[in-house]
Design goal:
two-stranded antiparallel ribbon, three-stranded antiparallel sheet, mainly alpha, elongated, 259 residues
């Protein structure tokens, strides 16, 4: 989600910050509730019931029954310093904290985030009306990219792709466009190995390049009648390389004109 404050949800007149991993700021919920320090995020975390609840949520989102990594625990809840600091938590944890603060606040918080989960288009429109033109451009591109991605993966399925083939084809696309697969790109974007959507961290131009690559790959797979993961991967690589060649040629031409 964008870090532009105008794109954040507002509850009781308070902006509720959401970080790059979609964790919600508990300090902002605390301010919205109007409670004193005896119900601060740190006080809630010290309750004997919070620890077991945290473990249950970790088990739910990781599919593991223990031995959680540091990144997995930080994806659930983390305290940040600096001017933009506070305690940021996974939405499930944030809803539990809102219930601890106030039943009425919990209802308001749940309404906002249930609308988000249900993909309520009016909620997105409410947010984007307060966003910058740049944020609106990114959101529009990201939304269109999801449609293109869905058509691409449907095409892979219809042409015999299974299981790991989807990741293999996507990595081939990234490799051709950006000289690195998903793992490398996640590292470059500061994302953990698991958790967080890579494309939510991409710039608008990067999203456009990916869309173009998946669009042409879809056409090539269908036109060539590619079958199975390996043939779909080769078709994707070929189309994505044409996109990359066009990008590089345009950049070289612009550099020459500036000399």
């Amino acid at each position: 989600m964008s870090t532009n404050p105008s794109s954040f949800p507002v509850i009781r007149g308070r902006t509720i910050r959401v970080d790059e991993q979609n964790r919600i700021c508990l300090n902002d919920l605390h301010k919205a509730a109007g409670y004193s320090t005896n119900k601060s995020p740190s006080a809630w975390r010290d309750l004997p019931t919070t620890g077991p609840f945290q473990v249950a949520v970790l088990e739910r989102i990781t599919g593991k029954s223990g031995n959680f990594t540091r990144d997995e625990m930080r994806a659930l809840i983390v305290a940040k310093g600096s001017a933009a600091g506070g305690t940021f938590a996974h939405p499930i944890m944030a809803l539990a904290y809102a219930e601890y603060l106030s039943d009425k606040l919990a209802v308001e918080v749940k309404e906002v985030f249930l609308r988000y989960k249900a993909a309520d288009a009016t909620l997105a429109d409410d947010i984007l009306q307060r966003a910058t033109p740049e944020a609106n451009e990114w959101a529009g591109t990201r939304a269109l990219g999801r449609t293109v991605r869905s058509k691409y993966t449907d095409t892979l399925k219809n042409h015999g792709a299974e299981g790991k083939d989807y990741g293999m084809c996507t990595n081939a696309l990234y490799q051709a466009l950006f000289d690195g697969g998903a793992k490398k790109l996640r590292e470059q974007k500061g994302l953990p190995a698991r958790g967080g959507n890579l494309r939510d961290k991409m710039t608008t131009p990067e999203l456009v390049y990916v869309m173009a690559g998946e669009t042409l790959s879809t056409e090539r797979i269908e036109d060539e009648g590619a079958q199975g993961g390996e043939e779909c991967r080769r078709a994707t690589t070929k189309s994505a390389r044409f996109i990359r060649d066009a990008i590089d040629a345009d950049r070289r031409d612009r550099r020459r004109r500036l000399l």
